[in-house]
Amino acid sequence: MAGLIPKAFIDELIARADIAEIIGSRVPLKKQGREFKACCPFHGEKTPSFWVSPEKQFYHCFGCGAHGTVIGFLMNYDKMSFPEAVEDLAGRMGLEVPREGGDAPQAKRVDDTAYDLMSKVAQFYAQQLQKDERVWAYATEKRGLTPDTIERFGIGYAPNSWNDVLRRFGTNDAARQQLTELGLIIERDRGQIREGERHYDRFRDRLMFPIRDARGRVIAFGGRIIDQGEPKYLNSPETTLFHKGRELYGLWETRQSRAPLKRLVIVEGYMDTVRLHQYGITYAVATLGTATTPEHLNRMFRLVPEVVFAFDGDRAGRGAAWRALQHALAVAQEPREMRFLFLPEGHDPDSLVGEEGRELFEQRLAGAEPLSEYFVRALAAEVDLSNAGGRARFAESARPLIAKMPAGIYRDLLIDRIATTVQLSRAKLEAYWSSSKDWKADVLSEGGHGPNSGSRGSVIRQAVNLLLKFPSIAQTVSDEQRSQIESSDEPGSDLLREMLDELRASPAQSAGQVLQRWEGRPHYESLVKLLGREDLIHEPGTATQELGALLARVVDLAEEKRFRALSDRMQFWGLDALNEAERVEYKDLIAQAARRKPTR
After folding, report:
1. What number is the average pLDDT over the span 191-219?
2. CATH match for 453-594 among 1.10.860.10, 2.60.40.10, 3.30.70.1170, 3.60.21.10
3. Domains of the chain: which residue ranges?
4. Are 339 and 370 in contact (CB under 8 A)?
5. What is the dihedral of CA 488, 491, 496, 498, to 10 degrees?
6. By the 8 A CB rule, do 69 and 78 touch?
7. How far apart are CA 409 and CA 396, in angstroms?
8. How far apart are CA 104 and CA 122, in angstroms?
9. Architecture (CATH level 2) of domain 112-235
10. pLDDT digits (tens, 9 = 90+) for 234-273
11. Could you report the per-residue pLDDT of 96-116, keeping only the tens digit for each?
């Protein structure tokens, strides 16, 4: 992209970056006071003279004189150009690099006063916990937290009041606006406003857990209800400081430990994290009310080679484990190691470490199930592998999951394991998968490919194009038509359904209005390209008819795809591969295909 990178943006990158985390992912750092030291990566030495200061966001070698910021380190160590280093660093933070004179949006700079305010609120909560005997007894006696742990994690208490934070920190309009933007207070709907009650505190009568970023700054809070109430846990909303899909609770505290960091264990809750740390398992972290994302995992694997997922031994825990596995597959590659630990029924990490202690809990971690073993066991639990039908369904279920994985030894070994499980050679398994694979063409690409393509691209692409250029026709789609395309898994069908739902709920009159709604979302650039294409259709009336025909074709494609899947299964596994219900479905699909076949 042409144009210079603004100096203010570079300053912001350096301010936000955790230089110790980035250098530590490449060079083994040892903590010494507030800084870190290591043998210099830029010249040979036996005695460490390379220092990294998170506070100064600077590194310096007293031996060879190498020094600089995190951007300079990436340039020197990874042999990047300056723009490449900036792009790499910005990508880690989910930012787009702006250019002076370019069209890219400027990244919003976070005012330092936001961090100051969050720190002051955290101190206020901590003081309230010390003052309230009821809550102190709850934290120490009922939940088993020591005063040292409470202080180390900055745990506090949000008073049972509608306006304590508001009164203390929202003394003027600007302050109240900042409190609202940081998710600490909530603005009432206009119809609910009474004199003096425009805002109220988000957190009330909750044990408060400050969430810190990689530099130890408070960016959000998690609150646990003390007695009865819903929700049990309440998190800060997404703000300019806090993006829950990237942050991990306890990671900053983990990196303050002097113990060598060899693995991370992911748990589900704040209390699980805190209690494990208290028992000496200082490498526990938690996601923040969301599933473990590939971004979480990539961040962890920059620090350690091994990640263990620890889940409660109940149905919800097993469901969370399966969701975590699906995200983990996208980053599964050598030499990364991922394992799954399922706790005894009725236990979570908090209760189990309190009952068993550190040594036995760590023995469980050491014996956690490898990802490949859990993958096979979880899929096998859903079928009967003693017959051809069960093995066929196992293979069908495994295929889209394997497709998520990057190429490499890890993927190859898992395919071998699946082939053994379904009693096929690897070559025959891959031939079966290949015969029923989905068409991978970009639904919004210029040219269509596969069985659903035509002169103007795929059926889905044509329907999206019509909705983009004539958004009002979405109002002509009936509930029945909308429900019929629910089961379609053609590439882009999610986008088509989302556009239909939005345009039916909130009508638009022009393509420009649709594009504005989609700005910053996936497919935006592709929609822009679609808008610039010439089409044969220029009348809304004709577009309405064609959209109806296209939606009908989407339904036909879903049925054809299901028919091919059942046919492929019988071809490879025999008639016994279909159960009674699937045989009835197969006959129905044959009949429907015959009715669709044009007469001559």
Report:
1. 82
2. 1.10.860.10
3. 7-92, 112-235, 251-376, 382-435, 453-594
4. yes
5. 90
6. no
7. 22
8. 36
9. Alpha-Beta Complex (3.90)
10. 999 888 888 887 889 999 899 887 677 889 999 988 999 9
11. 788 765 444 444 445 678 999
